[in-house]
Structure formats: structure tokens, C-alpha cells
Task: inverse folding
């Protein structure tokens, strides 16, 4: 035997281990790198109508390191929760990185919730410190009647004797170095609560690892397509599922960050898109409905070429895609929820789809798309048995992957969110096409069962939205002695437009068999919404369903 | 105290853990997902001039799962090393996924090495099985004189009685399911050896985690910009640092894969780019030099719009960027080595650079760029003390991150590759600009010290490359009794062009102080290359340096 063969045989019997470094994924490394190599990139914040503030990534990095130093000196221990009650602006972005930089956990609070709901969430998370925008202090004072975090930091002027001013705090502390060295990337870095349309809100805890892997998945060309040339405009609230992770993904990619502050109008949105040459804006369909009304008004804007709108939180209607297409704006959607960080899928089309007719292509674009890398989807029956990807079998959408939750915060025990074999139960009903595209057809609780047959409220809402004067539509189930349930439609007209219940009924009669057409159609100025701006079907069912 | 406050205080004292699933990163999940959602995407292989074969991702997925089943039945245990001695084609791509799917480790062998070098590497890795392309069997028979892996699988027809035919093997085995369930993502998945220009080649072991994190980094818009609409053409050998990870990144992004097979000519490269509508091609500068000669010949091609060439392995000269710009082709470079998987940086420009004059912009594009996310660079002096990012301080480039090696395979002990504080010592000398762009100025061993002053061989090679008739240039140090070392230039002319030593000397005299101009210039038809196609300066120094 040759020397080489003797060595080969000997080494073949020896296990091999990786020679790669142990290098944990750490959220703070995003801004550490951005501060160094994208130092002059900009963060533009609208603070009020016409009032803007700009800071550079270098300035944001320094401020975040000052905040870390300040929180540590306030006694914030690693693992402690620091809550924010803030709008979308640069100071909130600084908190996104400064809180983790001192080892604490970012807990964003939704100012659209009631004081009592906020107190419940703060108590459940066990928040140690809270950072509040000046104009949210009236709300905060009501929350404070219930809970007393150790410190209240106010971004702006405060009327409270014990409050700490953000500006003073940062001025009084030297920036610390970014944390480096050995580290467990599964350490918690952020907590978000589900919007709680059923039952109490439930907390989901993201890790450094989960946030970063999702960010990698979303900067990809077929997802958000973020580069150092992108200008991001995040209308999605930073208090809601970390604004879809954009504050992390954008800084990883070196993209410019534009933030709308509080209560921005559709006209202002288009003003900002034009002025800042936005390449991608993130928001819910309600926002885009307003933008469409502005676009179709007699005003006009010098919009950037290749503008892309990312829509999430609810399904945009096929009609919305057609309208934006006419304006030369590309609308893209996907699917996700608080439990999936939230971006689990994006709806990009493949070259093969270019040959589809427009109707089929729009239908596909309005679907919930394909899973990001390392995300798995399945549809399952009531026993969690997988169903076929045939485009017709309907089952609960179930999901797994590195940025999907397995349970919720619970005291003393976590609350399970998964099937016995480890898949998240989303509560959405979907079909999966043979090519893997997911199409949500309903929420489990939103399906309407009339005379033993299912009616999809989502399908019917999309059909109603084809009517020119419709702004929003909701279809709910109302109890019926004869049929079990019957569909009812609630519709709001676009601003200044006329819409009657008869128009809606006639339109539906032309598209549906007689038994599926709602017996009752209500036209309302506005449809009820949840704290996160979604249609509040729970409230609608309570208001109209029980009154029958 | 309110109930909420009591609960807040209680929970604040309780540590929070992440609720995210434990979901390991696993290379085989790339093809598992691609097989499902990009089933019809194509892998086109050139097997010989004019001979092409196409398979779909679905077919590749099935074949990989058959291979996994076959290897297991051959007794290949989890962790065993399976070597490939193959060109770039679909069968090799199937092996890239089929070997990990049975839990084994992919070890790609470089057919440009000598039989003795290959035997050394196979012995060092302890390879259990080898898969060989039919046309590489003559080389393999010479290797077999030294080492005897348990099984030899031949892709094609074999003359060996004990060899196993790839086609038979796959036909005889049913596809297994992709591995799922609990798993350590730090498990080895691939081994590559350094090219060993100094000393013996040394093995680097990649993990599932390291391969995937690099793939995420490279599909990003500012890196390779890979999407389901990309058509990748991988001229970089699949036997060399996993072809820069493209076989993993492309399938993650759903990009079409085009592979050139053995010994492809520049004309064929342009034929394939035109026919397949390639969007991005990967290769070393030597390849692009040939492509330039073809482009500037009297032939013409219908090239796709927005064609991008990724150049690595050695620095393309600024002149090469100018030439491709003239042809409407975007050349991009970066930096990496076997020890960094290899892509550590990419040279994208920022919007601010659009205002630069062309000379400065090309110079920046020819630099080694910015680190990918979670990769850290520094330059350090001989004591590994960090030096300033001022664009002038020169030190060894050092690197760390999740896809950077900390050591090499060694028996019985690994061979360290890092500084005491954990940074990879690259052996490259670099400056870092204040904005973070890295510029390699030399290899530590390639610097020329003449009369106590440093001369950069890389700078001088780029200056020589500005001469129209120059194909390649190398500047090496030769011993000199008076000055210690003196530079010597070795230059090859472009095909059919005339070039004299005097032209080179005159050109250098116009650009350099007299003491820096080489005393000796040799014009050769071809410059000596290593097995991986790089300029072999070690051999040049041995041939010319010692002969002085």
C-alpha cells in the first residue's frame, strides 16, 4: 500500500468537522457595518406636515451607541424589555439598534390600541423602560394609570417630573462600542404582539438570527430588491411587526430610509415619493386605496420611474393591480403575519408567466406567492394531514422555517402555536397551485357555510372591489335559521363617489349563483378597522351578525 | 398596585427566550424548494463543442435523491467524503446536492493538478468514493496508482472492471426523500483545497450554515443580483471553491443554470451567452481576456442587454473595465479566496460615485470593494495591530465572518489560519479607503523591495495592461546584489498582435520614477499558470529570479 493510500484509509476513518469560524448573526452588526461603509446614506423623517429631519447612517450609528450607553447607566440589564410608543421616524430607528446594543429587547407598542390593551401588553412583556413620542404622551398618561415601568424617556418635551428627555440622555452619554465577541444568536432582540382580533394579544419573541435570516430573504431581487441605490419609504408602522423588517433589511443593503411620521395623507405620500425619488414603498391596501384616489384626482406628481409598492397585511384586490399598472407603478404582494416575522412569501412571477393573458397574470400577482428560501408551506386538513398542491384542495395554511414562531409568550408556560409535528397553524385557509403559489381563500373564521356549501368572503370582496366606486368591501357570515349562515356585504364608497346597495347586488348577481348573493348589503362611509388598520370582521360580526 | 403593574413587575423579573422555531439551515433544502417551486427551470450543459443537454430542476432534484439512495447503498456513511473529478455540467450539479442528501461531504478535485498532487489531496481528505468524468479517466488512472477509494463511479463509459456506471447506479435506485428534521447546521457539507502556490494544498471545510449564509449574501442586488429571471453562466470551475457558490445561490434564487463543460473557447462562450440569453457570467480575468479578443475580432454576436460579467480570482485591470464598457457589458469584481468560501466582498458603487470622473470611477470599480453583510475587514501590521482606513496605510488584509475559515484540515491537529484575536490572515496587502472600499496592493510575497523602497507588482501590472497589445502581465521580484530586489516584467501579447520589450519599457518610463522601472522585460507567448488558472508567480520566480 502506498503512503498516500495508508493516509487516505486512516483519514477516511476520521470524522471531519467544519473549519468555519464561529461567527454569530447579530442585529447590531447591521448598523455597525452600515455606519462604516454607508456612512453618508440618509434617513429622512417627516415629523409633521412639511417638517422634515435628515440624519446620516453615521449619525444614527453614533446615536444608537449613545442610547445603549444611556440605557445601561439607567440600569437596563441584558434581556430586559424596553418598549417604544413611537411613530415612524429616525429616532425610532435609533431605538431599534440602540436597545439591542445594550443587550435589551425592543418591544414596539401600537398607539392605536386602547390604554387598557397597552397596559395588558406591557404587563405581559414585563417592560422595564418605555420611550414615548411627545405627541403620544396623552395616551401614555392613560396607560400609566395601569402600569409603571422604571423609567419613561420622552422624545420631545415632557410634562412629567420624573420623565427623562431623550435629547438630554443622549447628550450626557458617550457612545459605547458595538457589542462583539462570542454570542448566542438565538438571544431575543425584539417582541411583537399579535393584533388580537380574537382573544388577548399574544407575544412573539424574535431572535437576532430570525431577524437577520428574514432580512437576507427580503433584500433578494425577487422580494424587496434592496440595494444601496434603493430609496425605501416605510409606511408600514414601525410599531407593527417591526415594519416588516425593513428597518433591518434596508440598513443591511445600504438603502436610503424615508419615514412618514404620524398621520400622513395620501397627497403627502405622493409628494414625498416624488421629492425623495422613492424606489419602493411599503404599506397596507388601505394606504394604497387612498393613494389611488389621489392619483386619479386632478392633481399630478412627477413620480420616479420603476416605483414599486409592496402591499401586505391584507390582500390587494386584482383591480388594485390593474389601476397601478395603468399608472406605471408596480404593485407586489406576499403573505405573512406577526408569527412569521412577518414576511414568509412574496409574489414574484417567473419568466414562464410572461406568456399568460393579463387576467390570469393579475390573478397570479394577487395571490400570496412563493415561500422565501428556507420557509416551508403546506395546507392541511383538520387533523393536520397535508393536502394536495392541486390548486383546488382547501386546507389550513401551515408554515415552518427559521423566522416562524413555535409558540407565544405565556406565564408561566408558553402557549403552543404549532401542530404536533411542528408547523405553525396560521388560521388562514388556502389552496396551493401545482407550481407552489399559495392562494389564501379565507380565514378559518371568515368562511361562510350556507346550506352546507362554503362561500369565500375573500373571493366575493375582490369581485365587489371591481366596481369603480368601491373603496373597501367586507363580506361576513350572519346567522340564519334556515341556511345556518348567510353572507352579508359591507361596502364603503370612494371619496366623493356615489354607491348604492343595489349596484353591489346587481354586480354580484351577474357573477355568482343566486344562492351565494348576499341578502343584505350595507353601504358605510368607513368600514370598522382594528388597531393595526385591518378590517375588523370580529366587530362587524358582533354589530350586524348578532343583530339579525 | 394595579393587577397589571403587579404582573409587569413579576414578568420583568423573568428572562425572555425567543419563541422562534429551531430550523437549521441545510443545503439540501435549496434543491428541495427549487424542485417544488422552480420545477421547470433549466440546467443547460455543454458536454462538448456543439453538444448540449438540458435538464429541469425537477429532474435534477430527482437525480440527486437517487444518487443519495445509491451512495447509501454503497455504504457511504454520514460524514464520509465523496470526491468529484468532473467538469461543469448538470451531472456535477446533481452530485453537489446528492452527496449532501446522503449526509456525505462533497470534495471537488481539480483536474488541472498533477496526479501526485491529487493523490495527496485525496489522502488528506480521506475520500471514500470518487465520481469521475469519462474523459478524465486517463488522469484518474494515474491518481489510482497512489490511492484506492472504495468505489469509483464513472460518468460515462469506463474501461475499469470494478468501476460503477453513474447511469446504471441512478437507474437502480429509487429517490429518497430529502433529509428533514433536527440537524446541526455546522455539519460539514463540502471540502475545498487551497491552490497551494506555496507549500502543500490545505483543506477548508464548509458547513451547511456557511454555504447558505454566503449564498444569501451573493444573491443580493448589489452582489450577483440573482432572481428567477437571471440566467447564470458559470465558467468558474465547479472544482474550484464550489464555483464561487453559484451552484447554491442560483438554485436558491431560481435562476437558470448554464454550464460550459470542458475546454470552452471564447467564441463558444459568446455563442452560448447569445443563444441562452445569459444575464450573468462568472469567470477569471484570463477568460475575459479571451472574450475581449473575440469581441474585437471581425466576428459579431447578438449579445443580451444588461449582460454582467463577474470577475474574480485575480484583479481585472482598469483597462478591462473600459473595454467592456465600450461593448455595453458591465464587469464587476470583488475579492475572496478558498478560505472565505470564497465571496467576501463585491465592488458595487454607491449613488454618490455617479458624480466621479470616469478615471476615478473605473479605479474604484477595479478595487476589491465592500464587505458582504456580516463580513469584517481590517488591515493590520506585522503584530496584527489594526491600521487606519485612510486609503494609504498598507497592511495585511484580515477578515472574519460566518463563511470565513479559522483553520485548515490537519492530522492529527488543524492548522491555524487566524491571528490570536481570531481574524483570518489572508496574505494579501491592502489599503482601505475611508469609505470602506478595500484595495489590494499586493500579495505579501509579491511585494518588491528595491533599495529599501516598496514597489507594488499589482500596480505595475495594471499600468502595463494599458498597452493595447498586452494580453497579460506579471511583475516579479528578482534578487539583486546591490538593491536587494529588482522588478522584472513578464508580458504576453494578445493573439496576432506584436509586442516588444522596448514598448513595455518606454511605457513604464513614462509612468514611473527611473528606479522603479524593471531592468528586464520578457515577452512570452503565454505566462505560466497554476492549476486554477492563476498567474504562477512562484514558478516565474523560480525560473527567472533564481537564474539571475
Result:
Amino acid at each position: 500500500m502506498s503512503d498516500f493510500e495508508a493516509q487516505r484509509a486512516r483519514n477516511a476513518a476520521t470524522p471531519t468537522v467544519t473549519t468555519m469560524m464561529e461567527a454569530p448573526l447579530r442585529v447590531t452588526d447591521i448598523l455597525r457595518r452600515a455606519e462604516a461603509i454607508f456612512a453618508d446614506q440618509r434617513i429622512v423623517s417627516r415629523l409633521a406636515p412639511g417638517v422634515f429631519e435628515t440624519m446620516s447612517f453615521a449619525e444614527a450609528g453614533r446615536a444608537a451607541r449613545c442610547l445603549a450607553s444611556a440605557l445601561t447607566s439607567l440600569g437596563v440589564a441584558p434581556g430586559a424589555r424596553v418598549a417604544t410608543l413611537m411613530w415612524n421616524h429616525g429616532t425610532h430607528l435609533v431605538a431599534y439598534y440602540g436597545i439591542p446594543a445594550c443587550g435589551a429587547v425592543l418591544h414596539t407598542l401600537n398607539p392605536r390600541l386602547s390604554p387598557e390593551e397597552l397596559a395588558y401588553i406591557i404587563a405581559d412583556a414585563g417592560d422595564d423602560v418605555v420611550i414615548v413620542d411627545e405627541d403620544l404622551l396623552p395616551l401614555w398618561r392613560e396607560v400609566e394609570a395601569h402600569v409603571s415601568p422604571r423609567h419613561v424617556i420622552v422624545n420631545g418635551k415632557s410634562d412629567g417630573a420624573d420623565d427623562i428627555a431623550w435629547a438630554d440622555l443622549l447628550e450626557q452619554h458617550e457612545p459605547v462600542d458595538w457589542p462583539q465577541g462570542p454570542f448566542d444568536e438565538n438571544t431575543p432582540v425584539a417582541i411583537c404582539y399579535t393584533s388580537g382580533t380574537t382573544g388577548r394579544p399574544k407575544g412573539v419573541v424574535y431572535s437576532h438570527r430570525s431577524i437577520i435570516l428574514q432580512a437576507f430573504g427580503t433584500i433578494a431581487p425577487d422580494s424587496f430588491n434592496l440595494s444601496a441605490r434603493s430609496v425605501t419609504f416605510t409606511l408600514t408602522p414601525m410599531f407593527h411587526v417591526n415594519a416588516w423588517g425593513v428597518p433591518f433589511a434596508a440598513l443591511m443593503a445600504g438603502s436610503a430610509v424615508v419615514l412618514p411620521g404620524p398621520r400622513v395623507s395620501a397627497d403627502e405620500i405622493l409628494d414625498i415619493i416624488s421629492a425623495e425619488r422613492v424606489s419602493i414603498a411599503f404599506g397596507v391596501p388601505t394606504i394604497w386605496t387612498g393613494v389611488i384616489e389621489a392619483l386619479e384626482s386632478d392633481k399630478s406628481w412627477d413620480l420616479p420611474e420603476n416605483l414599486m409598492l409592496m402591499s401586505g397585511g391584507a390582500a390587494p384586490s386584482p383591480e388594485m393591480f390593474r389601476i397601478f399598472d395603468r399608472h406605471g407603478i408596480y404593485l407586489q404582494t406576499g403573505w405573512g403575519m406577526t408569527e412569521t416575522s412577518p414576511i414568509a412569501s412574496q409574489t414574484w412571477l417567473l419568466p414562464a408567466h410572461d406568456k399568460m393573458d393579463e387576467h390570469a397574470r393579475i390573478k397570479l400577482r394577487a395571490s400570496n406567492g412563493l415561500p422565501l428560501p428556507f420557509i416551508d408551506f403546506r395546507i392541511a386538513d383538520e387533523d393536520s394531514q397535508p393536502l394536495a398542491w392541486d390548486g383546488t384542495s382547501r386546507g389550513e395554511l401551515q408554515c415552518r422555517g427559521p423566522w416562524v414562531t413555535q409558540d407565544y409568550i405565556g406565564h408561566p408556560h408558553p402557549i403552543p402555536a404549532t401542530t404536533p409535528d411542528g408547523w405553525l397553524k396560521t388560521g388562514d385557509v388556502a389552496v396551493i397551485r401545482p407550481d407552489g403559489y399559495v392562494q389564501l381563500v379565507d380565514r378559518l373564521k371568515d368562511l361562510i357555510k350556507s346550506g352546507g356549501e362554503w362561500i369565500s368572503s375573500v373571493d366575493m370582496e375582490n369581485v365587489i372591489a371591481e366596481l369603480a366606486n368601491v373603496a373597501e368591501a367586507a363580506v361576513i357570515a350572519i346567522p340564519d335559521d334556515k341556511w345556518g349562515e348567510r353572507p352579508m356585504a359591507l361596502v364603503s364608497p370612494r371619496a366623493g363617489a356615489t354607491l348604492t346597495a343595489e349596484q353591489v347586488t346587481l354586480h354580484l348577481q351577474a357573477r355568482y349563483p343566486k344562492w351565494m348573493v348576499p341578502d343584505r348589503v350595507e353601504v358605510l362611509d368607513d368600514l370598522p378597522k382594528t388597531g393595526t388598520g385591518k378590517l375588523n370582521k370580529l366587530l362587524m360580526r358582533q354589530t350586524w351578525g348578532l343583530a339579525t
Notes: The mean pLDDT of chain B is 94. Residues 447-548 of chain B form a domain with the GMP Synthetase; Chain A, domain 3 fold (CATH 3.30.300.30). Chain B touches chain A through 105 residues (CB under 8 Å).
